[in-house]
TrEMBL record:
Family (UniProt): Belongs to the SCC3 family.
Gene name in the database record: Stag2_0
Listed GO biological process terms: sister chromatid cohesion
GO MF terms, alphabetically ordered: chromatin binding
Official protein name in the record: STAG2 protein
Native source organism of the sequence: Rhynochetos jubatus
């Protein structure tokens, strides 16, 4: 009897899906399309055995091309709910490989809210599987730390931090109490300098610091470590910083001090709703 009841419920669900959803997810009214995508996201989360597969996921993938920003936004938030649950990751592999390029392109969406959620979704994808995103995919997100729109830049800063700064070497565990040049932060500060120089936007250190301020405050406020990298002799086998790298570190250090003292984003960075011309 239980099996019969379950079959009957699944038949009803299937009828609702084919009779309502399949027609309404392309409705002429954007609000109805948004409701459809929001709901299918809930179904996939609540009943992943039946709904979390590519026959249903493809509707979310296709709708990421919707002309209305509110609908694209619902696609991204629905997907975030799925990628956040690591137990569901194996069921999302095919979808990720098929629609990853679209998600990456949405980080440049003309609607800022959509761009922010696309970056947050890629951060979750990154945490579920490091191999999925190519170096080129990551670089497309990295350069957004210099965006004039702060929410986009902060989301990109968190992505950058998770990718390049959050992995700790097991050897660092013994160095946690060490300070200055011998602290685990020393290598991370150098990574920050290398990233800044490679990005070739040398007049924008304040933008980079502001983007990472929320997620990497402890690193950016480790002035003792920065000082010792500038003033002390390198440890055995350690490469000394070049003049160019030292200049970049001084510039970053100045920006972190200014950010800590003034507590506001750099000039020219705001939270406006629409992206201006390139």
């Amino acid at each position: 009897q239980l099996q019969e009841n379950q079959d009957e419920i699944e038949n009803m669900m299937n009828a609702i899906f084919k009779g309502v959803f399949v027609h309404r997810y392309r409705d002429a009214i954007a609000e109805i399309r948004a409701i459809c995508i929001e709901e299918i996201g809930i179904w996939m989360k609540m009943y992943s055995d039946a709904f979390l597969n590519d026959s249903y996921l493809k509707y979310v993938g296709w709708t990421m091309h919707d002309k209305q920003g509110e609908v694209r936004l619902k696609c991204l938030t629905a997907l975030q709910g799925l990628y956040y649950n690591k137990e569901l990751n194996s069921k999302l592999e095919l979808f990720t490989s098929r629609f990853k390029d679209r998600i990456v392109s949405m980080t440049l969406d003309k609607e800022y809210d959509v761009a922010v959620q696309a970056i947050k979704l890629l951060t979750l994808v990154l945490q579920s599987s490091e191999e999925v995103l190519t170096a080129e995919d990551c670089e497309n997100v990295y350069h957004l730390v210099y965006s004039a729109h702060r929410p986009v830049a902060v989301a990109a800063g968190e992505f950058l931090y998770k990718k390049l700064f959050s992995r700790r070497d097991p050897e660092d565990d013994g160095m946690l109490k060490r300070r200055g040049r011998q602290s685990p932060n020393a290598n991370l500060v150098k990574t920050l300098v290398f990233f800044f120089l490679e990005s070739e936007l040398h007049e924008h250190a304040a933008y980079l610091v502001d983007s990472m301020w929320d997620c990497a405050t402890d690193l950016l406020k480790d002035w003792e470590c920065m000082n010792s990298l500038l003033l002390e002799e390198p440890l055995n086998g350690e490469e000394p910083l070049t003049d160019r790298q030292e200049s970049a570190l001084i510039e970053i250090m100045l920006c972190t001090i200014r950010q800590a003292a003034e507590c506001h984003p750099p000039v020219g960075r705001g939270t406006g709703k629409r992206v201006g011309s390139k």
